[in-house]
Amino acid sequence: xxxxxxxxxxMIFRIFDKLFGARLNDTVEILPPAKIRxxxxxxxxxxxxMDYRGDFLPVVSLRRRFSLDDPIDGERxxxxxxxxxxxxxxxxxxxxxxxxxxxxxxxxxxxxxxIGSQYIKGIIKYDERPVVILDLYALFTTQWRIQMAL
Length: 150
What we know:
It is a single chain. Helix content is 11%, strand content 45%. The chain has helices at 62-65, 136-139, 142-149, and strands at residues 7-15, 18-23, 27-31, 46-52, 55-61, 77-82, 86-91, 93-101, 120-126, 129-134. It has a 5-stranded mixed β-sheet. The chain has a 5-stranded mixed β-sheet with strand order 3-6-7-5-4.
């Protein structure tokens, strides 16, 4: 599909019954569950590290990062993203790709504006369901990377 200059593409994924989106350009690969080795004394949202093409990659549970329940068998995919470095995110299901015109991206409603609002770029519709578009750069800031290194 050819993308127009005023269109954006998002990877849509599910965590529980909620839909989230991330810029498709930030997505490198979607993998089935891999062996994740826990890291003692790491932050609660860091599931551990995994072997990714010969390198160790930190893996973060978005359920834990968003303070949602974390049942053992819930997350079924690891999405590899590339911000300034690669990182794995666990999600329940990858739903698809949405191509959205710039004017169809709504700002977050005032009720969600608060502590977590800096992580939200906007809201779109996917199969008539609302999708929260995440700002992965804000979600995984320099401060977060510093914490990961400790």
